Amino acid sequence: MTFPAVPSSSAAPSPRAERPQAERPRAGRPQDRRPASPGSQLTRTLLLLLAVTALWCLAVFGSTLIDPDRTVRHFFKFVHIMALTLGFGAVLAVDTCGLAVLLRRRSPGFATRVAATVDPAIWIGYVAIVLSGLMLVPDLGSVPMWFKLVAALLAGLNGVLSRGAMRALLAVPRGTAYTDIPRALMLRVVAHASVSQAAWWAAAIIGYFWA
Ligand code: HEM
């Protein structure tokens, strides 16, 4: 796929006339939103990193202030597992699409649109799993539990940092072949997907066998 030619003459025709129906912006699609300035993107990323860290601190240190009874814990263990199903399930769906791109079975555009669509489900699942974890009163004297908690924090921070790569992929014109995507961007995407998989699997396995 080659990129569409840009008209050379200075009297460029009106942008609306130029773009075929398929490319006309549809409200709400991430790829049609006007890109935010680099400064405001950095501020937004720093605020989101702060929010994930604050959520994690609330869950870990807030859990030392409560002592819910068995019934409440049982209920929040159910919430914990359902949040895992939603959040980690959506992560697995995105990374399966990513693998399909690497195996040249799906276009990068398809995988990126799936990622952008299920992104809210990942974050709802993540926030719910961390807050329900607070109600499960983790044993902060246990080393495996700390490995799990650090993996949980890493899953969130990596999720925030991967949004930049997703925005860059969403800006790639439709139909662009995987081989035409800048190598540095593909390496960033694969690195984020690998960290995401490692962090979620680590938290889930430690949570199931050692929590
Ligand atoms: C990505 C983040 C997380 C994942 C994937 C995860 C996953 C799991 C899993 C699979 C279990 C086993 C459930 C079972 O035995 O049926 C579990 C249990 C547990 N998790 Fe998490 N968890 C996460 C975050 C947290 C956080 C942030 C906390 C604490 C603040 C936490 C506290 C606990 C506790 C205390 C248990 C044991 C519950 C019990 O057996 O009574 N988890 N977690």
The molecules bound to the chains, other than polymers, are: protoporphyrin IX containing FE
Poorly predicted segments: 1-13
Rg, Å, rounded: 21 Å
Average of per-residue pLDDT values: 85
Number of strand elements: 0
| Elements, N to C (H/E) | HHHHHH
Distance between the termini: 50 Å
Number of helices: 6
The figure for the number of domains is 1
The global form is: elongated
User: Major sheet, described briefly?
Assistant: none
> Structural class per helix/strand content?
mainly alpha
Helix content: 55-70%
Give the amount of beta strand, in percent: under 5%
Structure description:
With 211 residues, this protein is mainly alpha-helical. It has one domain. The chain contains 6 helices and no strands. The longest helix is centred in the middle third of the chain and has 33 residues. The site of protoporphyrin IX containing FE has 24 residues, from helix 2, helix 3, helix 4, helix 5 and helix 6.
List keywords for this structure.
disordered N terminus; 0% strand; mainly alpha; binds protoporphyrin IX containing FE; 6 helices; 211 residues
Question: What would a concise description of this structure say?
Answer:
With 211 residues, this protein is mainly alpha-helical.
Topology:
Layout: H1 15-18, H2 38-62, H3 70-102, H4 108-135, H5 143-170, H6 183-209
Helix pairs in contact: 2-4, 2-5, 3-4, 3-6, 4-5, 5-6
Protoporphyrin IX containing FE (HEM) binds at residues 59-60, 63, 73, 77, 80-81, 84, 88, 129-130, 133-134, 136, 138, 149, 152, 155, 200, 203-204, 207-208, 211.
